[in-house]
Amino acid sequence: MTSLFWQTTGTGDRDLVLLHGWGLNAGVWSCIIPRLAPHFRLHLVDLPGYGRSRGYGALTLDQMAEEVASRAPAGALWLGWSLGGLVATTVAYRRPQAVAGLITVASSPRFCADGDWPGIRPEVLEGFAQELRSDFTRTVSRFLGLQTLGTESARQDARWLKSVVLAQPTPETEVLAGGLALLRASDLRSALGRLDVPLLRLYGYLDGLVPRKVVPLVDECSPASQSIVFAGAAHAPFISHPALFCQALCDFSQTVT
Hints:
single chain; 7-stranded mixed beta sheet
C-alpha cells in the first residue's frame, strides 16, 4: 500500500508546494520554513519512495508528477529543487491550469551533458548507480558533498544534508536508482519552451551539478522566464543563502496573479 507524506504549515494566503531533490526528503526545507511560513501555506512533500512516502517502487517522471499533483491544491506555486525541479516542471507542463507559477532551484531540463549542452557527465551518474548497490550511505554522502562543494560553509552544509537523510527511513535502492535514471535520461527542453505558466529559475554560481553555463541556454529555451544566479552558492542556495533565496520567492509571488 502506498502512502504519500504531505504536511501543510504556514499562515500566508498563497499555497507553495515544495519538492526536494534526489535521496532527500521534505526535512531539507526546515532551514527556511520560519522565513517562508508568514508568507505562504507551505506544502511539504516527500517524493514517492523517499523519506516517509512509503510503498513505492521506481516511478517514471510522469507517474511521480501525477502522484504529487493529485494531492495538491489548485492554483499553487510549485517549487522544485534539482530532481524535484523535473517533477514540478512536468506538473506545470501537464496541468498548467492548476499551477499559478513555477520555481526551479538548481535544476536543469537536461541534467546530463549532451553535446554542447553542459551538465553532469553520464559516467558520473552511472558510477553513483553502481555504488548504490554496495554502499548506500557512502554514495549519498558523496552526492551531498558535490552539492555543497565550493561554498564557505560546504562541510557544515553537507553534514546537515546528511542528517536530513538519516533522520527518515532509508529509500529503497530501486527508488534511488530510478531517480538517478531520471536525472540521466530526462530531457524537458522542448516542454520548457512550451510552458504556459510564469517561471523563475534559481541557480548557484558555484554549482558543480547544474553548471552556470546552462543558464543562457535555458534562457533561450524559455525566453519569458526569469533567472537569478546566487554568487557564492552551489547546488543548495536555500541553505547557504536563505535570506536572499526567500526574498526571491516572495518577490516572484507578488508578480504572479
